[in-house]
Specification:
single chain; mainly alpha; 8 helices; about 80% helix; about 0% strand; globular; transmembrane helix
Length: about 230
């Protein structure tokens, strides 16, 4: 338990420090100065998405046999990446709780709670690390979701860059978010007899919550960026 929890704590502290430093590293444009904490929050989230999404993709490229056994295969690097992600989601949870009204942030707070529990199981048990790594592939799409928010806050929604990002965002949403969640749901269904009941319950509830949330988000994206 020690190294995993230390990584979670270190990640929390590192992302907290990054969040504080980002206003100097990436100064907000005039349109975002009234919501400085949100500007910092999105850039922090972008940094995590690049790290975790890129790390997960690299993991599957380096170990193509990993999807064949996502329950028992234990890669120290993958375990560390999952622990770092738990630290980030804890930091983002605290950041939203301190800076945003609950009625505006409850949906993301609920999302983060589910993610922290599901990834935390892999960190604590040193099992299902491969399954957690599959889940982190979703962060590849999150890169473009966060870029979209940054462009909107900078009043650049009418630019070619925003339109290009919208197309890439939609493509990666289908490939790395919808398809990934579908694969995870299928894996749980096919392996229900070999997964302990408590772990199976956590995974099933997580998928039951995350899938509708992501379908609703896809609808919002389509309505906002393509069907105005």
């Amino acid at each position: 338990l020690g190294p995993g929890l230390l990584l979670v704590a270190g990640s929390f502290a590192a992302f907290r420090l990054l969040n504080r430093a980002l206003e100097r590293l990436v100064p907000p444009p005039p349109s975002a100065r009234r919501n400085r904490w949100k500007w910092r929050n999105i850039w922090t989230s972008l940094a995590h998405s690049v790290l975790s999404g890129g790390g997960a993709l690299a993991g599957f490229c380096l170990y193509p046999e990993l999807p064949q056994d996502v329950a028992d295969t234990h890669l120290p690097g993958a375990h560390s990446l999952v622990a770092v992600s738990v630290g980030y989601f804890l930091e983002d949870f605290v950041d939203m709780l301190c800076n945003q009204e609950l009625r505006q942030s409850w949906e993301l707070l609920f999302h983060h709670s589910v993610v922290i529990v599901c990834l935390g199981v892999a960190v604590l048990l040193h099992q299902y690390v491969g399954f957690a790594l599959v889940a982190l592939l979703v962060e590849i799409n999150s890169i473009f979701l966060h870029l979209r928010q940054i462009l909107l806050m900078a009043n650049l929604e009418h630019t070619a860059c925003y339109r290009l990002n919208s197309v890439v965002n939609l493509g990666t949403y289908v490939v790395f978010r919808i398809a990934t969640l579908a694969w995870m749901t299928r894996w749980l269904f096919l392996n229900r007899e070999s997964v302990p009941l408590a772990t199976y319950a956590v995974g099933t509830v997580g998928m039951a919550i995350m899938t509708p949330m992501n379908i609703v988000l896809l609808y919002r994206l389509l309505r906002s960026d393509f069907f105005k």
